[in-house]
Amino acid sequence: MNRKDLQLLSEKRLRESQSLFRSKLYEGCYHLAGLSIECAVKACIAKQTRRFEFPDKNRVLKSFDHNLTELIKVAGLLPALDQAMSSDAFAANWNTVRDWRIESRYTLNIKRVDAETLLHSITNPTDGVMSWLHFHW
Q1: pTM of the predicted protein model
Q2: d(CA 83, CA 52)
């Protein structure tokens, strides 16, 4: 898996999530929307990887986490995130997205509004988290 694969996977998971939303399958929509962000952040981590560099074991292990806030740290994006958080709209979107958990794959009670809010927070063209990540990946 390389950076380009992670970028493509991120975009594909987001499209799948949107399709599931249109089909009123909100649990799957919610899960895949968050997974699309996880893949995008991991693409940002991959961007930081240097050819022929022997990676730091701790950084490698942390890269396999699913916690979005922790992955942002591994990607070295905390300063950029802090700057982006000066926008109230982006901050609200990030606060929604960061609450996603990989365990959502086992959740049966995701409501339409929850899936819609997460999708909006990710895809908003001006203050969405995915647009911000695209700038960094």
Answers
A1: 0.93
A2: 32
Say if CB 11 and CB 36 are below 8 A apart: yes
Domains, the chain: 3-136 (1.20.120)
- Tens-digit pLDDT string for the chain (137 aa): 999 999 999 999 999 999 999 999 999 999 999 999 999 999 999 998 877 777 788 888 788 999 999 999 999 999 999 999 999 999 999 999 999 999 999 999 999 999 999 999 999 999 999 999 999 99
Cα(77)–Cα(133) distance, integer angstroms: 9
| Torsion sign, CA atoms 59, 62, 68, 73 | negative
Which alpha helices (H) appear in the chain, and where do they start and end? Answer: 3-22, 26-47, 57-63, 68-74, 78-84, 88-97, 112-123, 129-136
Q: How far apart are CA 83 and CA 105, in angstroms?
A: 31
- When computed from its CA atoms, the radius of gyration of the chain, rounded to whole angstroms, is 15
